[in-house]
Amino acid sequence: MIISVIAAYTKDTKGRQIIGKDNKLPWSISQDMAWFKSCTSGHAVLMGRKTHESIGRVLPKRDNIILTHDKDYRVPGAYVFNDLEDALQFAAPRDSELFVIGGEQIYRQVIDRVDRLYLTCIEKNPGYEGDTFFPSWNQTHFKVIDKHEIEDPKNGKVSFKVYHRHVYRQPKHFNADVVAAYSSDPHNPYAHGI
Q1: Which domain holds residue 112?
Q2: Domain count of the chain?
Q3: Alpha carbon distance 179, 184 (integer Å)
Q4: Would you write out the chain's pLDDT as a tens digit for each of its 194 residues?
Q5: CA-wise closest residue to 48 among 23, 27, 26
Q6: What's the predicted TM-score (pTM) here?
Q7: For position 33, which CATH number holds?
């Protein structure tokens, strides 16, 4: 299963990547919402409880997976987990690509294991402030495989980029034989990325 992150951000004066303020997106860009919908529809989406509550509903045409510490939390039409590994194991046989849609804590938990990033960037912050931020990530481990830009009347230049990981971290218990078999498998679409 491909683990993907999808997020929109702009940078503040300290260089931090703002993704939210008061549990909401600080901006509204219709093209970004349309891109989010087209990317995630038909796939499983993983989110934290706060992100789910800020959306206010289960996203249609997607398996909604919610991660929370609250063991009693229930949402009709969604799958709720208290452990990231359990959520990932649940998602793996259901879909070829899982989209992690936020928030900050969930992004921090998965950023070092994602295969793809779908990032919308408001290139020049028109004055947005934030209290939640996208985590730092090693851009040298990814290459841009798709990009386009728009000119938004309120936000100026907005870029949409898809990054694909081409450098993988060596696991704690590295097994060279397993990696060799994986990377030489002709049916593995990522064989050349290891």
Answers
A1: 2-193
A2: 1
A3: 8
A4: 999 999 999 999 999 999 999 999 999 999 999 999 999 999 999 999 999 999 999 999 999 999 999 999 999 999 999 999 999 999 999 899 999 999 999 999 999 999 999 999 999 999 999 999 999 999 999 999 999 999 999 999 999 999 999 987 655 444 555 545 545 555 545 444 44
A5: 23
A6: 0.85
A7: 3.40.430.10
